[in-house]
Amino acid sequence: xxxxxxxxxxxxxxxxxxxxxxxxxxxxxxxxxxxxxxxxxxxxxxxxxxxxxxxxxxxxxxxxxxxxxxxxxxxxxxxxxxxxxxxxxxxxxxxxxxxxxxxxxxxxxxxxxxxxxxxxxxxxxxxxxxxxxxxxxxxxxxxxxxxxxxxxxxxxxxxxxxxxxxxxxxxxxxxxxxxxxxxxxxxxxxxxxxxxxxxxxxxxxxxxxxxxxxxxxxxxxxxxxxxxxxxxxxxxxxxxxxxxxxxxxxxxxxxxxxxxxxxxxxxxxxxx
Amino acid sequence: xxxxxxxxxxxxxxxxxxxxxxxxxxxxxxxxxxxxxxxxxxxxxxxxxxxxxxxxxxxxxxxxxxx
Lengths: 272, 67
Prior knowledge:
The complex is a heterodimer of chains A (about 270) and B (about 70). Chain A is α/β, with parallel strands linked by helices and about 270 residues long. Chain A is built from 10 helices and 10 strands. In chain A, the strands form 2 sheets. A 5-stranded parallel beta sheet of chain A has the order 3-2-4-1-5, with helices on both faces. A 5-stranded mixed beta sheet of chain A has the order 6-7-10-8-9. In chain A, α2 links the parallel β2 and β3. Chain A is globular, with a radius of gyration of 22 Å. Chain B is mainly alpha-helical. Chain B has one domain. Chain B has helices at about 5-10, 15-25, 25-35, 35-45, 50-55. The model of chain B has no long low-confidence stretch (mean pLDDT about 90). The chains are: A alpha/beta (about 270), B mainly alpha (about 70). Chain B: It comes from Paraglaciecola hydrolytica. Chain B: This is Extradiol ring-cleavage dioxygenase LigAB LigA subunit domain-containing protein. Chain B: InterPro entries: LigA_sf (IPR036622).
């Protein structure tokens, strides 16, 4: 007697570029799924997935100008979870890393697990991974603060200029409606960012507007300019603002003492 | 029959040898691959906006979180 297959979910990332950043395991999961839901930003990447598994369903049709993305994400989550409930082996593939700046991936996993069914996420190559490679910035060198542009403006965060600042979605800075699908309304947000940053950095501090390469025909877009020109830059929806560190802060002698160390000892250990 | 630009992009993104050849000589590599003249012209003119428009999924970006 055949028993009904229990549904399951694996969420995967296809990388930022069109084909080459997909891991071997991700490809295998896509290939072996009963159905693949895809939220991928370009048609070449979509076609790559469709060639691996023709039974794909797009999620991008749910985006509409003016509709809150909160609603869109709920609808995406419902599509994915409904297929799992129906007993299918489901793969949800998003571009980049499926857990970074992706709401429905986390929501779907949570809901599927709450139903007592198997759900997991596989890592993918994110824009941050591309940024580290393209700009040669090691997030561990000075420490790193990484945040979404509008969230930082809305909330009372503390910025540490000794750490590298990675500010995502700068092209939507100050956009509150979640209904905007272009970067034409960020001027006021950029002016505000310039003000905030100039409280902590010199006006001449070099900052970087970065876009990872989404197509293999060309490289990343990297624009360097002084902080005082930030308000006049023209970011796109995939631009990231990077503010390099002012350098390491002073040693914290109180903590070093509690650890039984001196500044000189630490410096000597690092030399050897 | 000319090969498609989509196939070229996929191959370029997963074939190190083709990528190396492209970086050395983009137009010659595109021609040798068998792209149509119009597609080769896009590469010759570095008309990346046209390429992006051809393949982008309008409205799918960005991945905004709630605040």
